[in-house]
Specification:
This protein is an alpha+beta fold. Helix content is 20%, strand content 30%. It is built from two helices and six strands.
Length: 98
């Protein structure tokens, strides 16, 4: 089984690792939680990553939590993109000459 990293955003800035973990554990096991904070201020940047042990549990969490209300905000939840090649499916657009 391959762990799956999930990108989560639009949660309240005061959200803790434990709160987000509890929400995701309703849909499967959670390997880790990483909430991203500003280096200078230490304040939450409003997004983070949750790692789940397999695709089935990750997909269940994504389906259940994307768009759901969490602390009065609508969560954005999706599988994390590969940061090493963020535009793998796209390409540079060129103008067609007339």
């Amino acid at each position: 089984m391959t762990p799956v990293e999930i990108f989560v955003s639009n949660y309240p800035w005061a959200t803790t690792d434990a709160e987000l973990k509890t929400e995701f554990e309703r849909h499967g096991l959670v390997d880790s939680i990483r909430l991203i904070t500003d280096r200078e201020t230490g304040r939450s940047r409003g997004f983070g990553f949750v790692t789940m042990p397999n695709t089935d549990e990750a997909n269940a969490a994504i389906a259940a939590l994307h768009g759901s209300d969490f602390g009065g905000r609508s969560l954005n939840v999706r599988e994390s993109r590969d940061k090493t090649n963020p535009r793998a499916k796209g390409g540079r657009r060129t103008r067609a000459s007339a």
